[in-house]
# Entry
Amino acid sequence: MPADVTLRLEAYLPYRLSVASNRTSRWVARSYEARFGLSIWQWRVIAVLGGADRLTAQALTASTAMDKVTVSRAVRALIERGLVERKKHQSDGRSALLALTPAGRSVYDEVAPVALRHEAALLDGFSPEEIRQLTDLLLRLEKRAEELAED
Amino acid sequence: MPADVTLRLEAYLPYRLSVASNRTSRWVARSYEARFGLSIWQWRVIAVLGGADRLTAQALTASTAMDKVTVSRAVRALIERGLVERKKHQSDGRSALLALTPAGRSVYDEVAPVALRHEAALLDGFSPEEIRQLTDLLLRLEKRAEELAED
DNA sequence: ACAATTTAGTTGCAAATGTAACTAAATTCC
DNA sequence: GGAATTTAGTTACATTTGCAACTAAATTGT
# Structure
């Protein structure tokens, strides 16, 4: 059976998705690394903590789509740099509450606009409707992939 | 400046893209690994070689969006498994021509339909028009990210 | 024609990653 | 109320990755 007639890598969706994602995250990652010395994961943690008050690591893993080991490592590095602080959680001795320190907050205030400019630069040339569609399609795809992975 | 008002990670496009891509490629990768013992990169090389006659590693890097080190490693593993063969390139002593062996061809014939089923499963629930849009939007995004990375 | 540069591909090494095993606290369920 | 299980988070280890340095062949420029 001539499978090569129907399978073309360049039109294969998981491939396109991977290329698009790798290119954009590499670009974005380099910028965070160069300007702020932050890895993508550290940046994600900061982004979420910046919009919340204090969260457990567990809550961070849920809202960053990172796994708990990755969160743990990112948080440790951020604590070492003095950008995040850890406070005892009084009702649960296993977990601690995490929050930005003032230094962390000021990094956040500096990084967030840069992040938004990145996004704007990337989406320059896309109409609002297209952006809406893209986001929607990606969300549906994520959900689908998650369902499929369960089996 | 209250950056937290405007930056929400869950609506941040590079993040959505990364989550969507990681979920789908993780799912797909596990399947290739489990069924055929192929990494994503090995599979890409096979996919491209399956649709071509014989290519240099250079041509492979161009059409798989992998870098030359990754291609080199994938090709080496495939040669060791007897799925790919390397022939002298008579006009250029630096590079060699790569092609699927019969064994490689038969793996290709087996994997390609699985890959297409994966894609179909993933895209179940998407209309043809949506699929077209998604592919188009991803391609534009890739191109944009590449341009931006150059500076 | 030959020195300098570019291109193809590989190798080595440091850093990042994923997985599994682990500790400790909380919860469940007799 | 106490054993068994689940949950939070960290650590250890093996694998993968990414980058820079390298070899060797081809190309360029003089």
Observations:
- The beta strands of chain B are 55-56, 84-88, 96-100.
